[in-house]
Amino acid sequence: MTKGLTAVFVANDSMAIGFLRRLNQRGVSVPRDLTVAGFDNIPESEFVAPSLTTVQADWEGQGAAAVEALLFEIGTGPSAGGQSSLVQVVARDSSGPGA
Q1: Is 7 helix (H, G, I), strand (E, B) or coil?
Q2: Quick check: 44 and 13 in contact, CB under 8 A?
Q3: How many structural domains comprise the chain?
Q4: Hey, which of 23, 37, 79, 84 has its CA 20 to 30 A from 7?
């Protein structure tokens, strides 16, 4: 099933959890055979087996950066400074050693 495929990044954690379940039903070992990662770090992602590697977005920081950029563009705010990372990878058991 995973010929040549080493990793899958799924659009969100709920879908990734369903994908993990289907892989398990097909006998695919995660992360030995395939690394799986999701996006949004829902609470359930920590408690499935294997626990899901995910990306945690800083929604508040992204919103603040967007407002700052908008104010700069319309000429009423200071220069939009460099932003620190607005996402963070939360590595868990569903990713292999290279992740």
Answers
A1: strand
A2: yes
A3: 1
A4: 84
Q: What is the CATH number of the domain that holds 49?
A: 3.40.50.2300
Q: What pTM was computed for the model?
A: 0.79
Q: Which two tokens stand for residue 40?
A: 């949004």
The domain containing residue 34 runs over which residues? 7-90
In whole angstroms, give the CA distance from residue 21 to residue 30.
10
41 phi-psi bin (left φ>0, alpha ψ -120 to 50, beta other): left
Does residue 95 belong to any structural domain of this protein? no
* Model confidence pLDDT, tens digit, residues 59-90: 888 888 888 888 888 988 776 666 667 899 99
Q: Which residues pair with 56 in a beta bridge?
A: 88
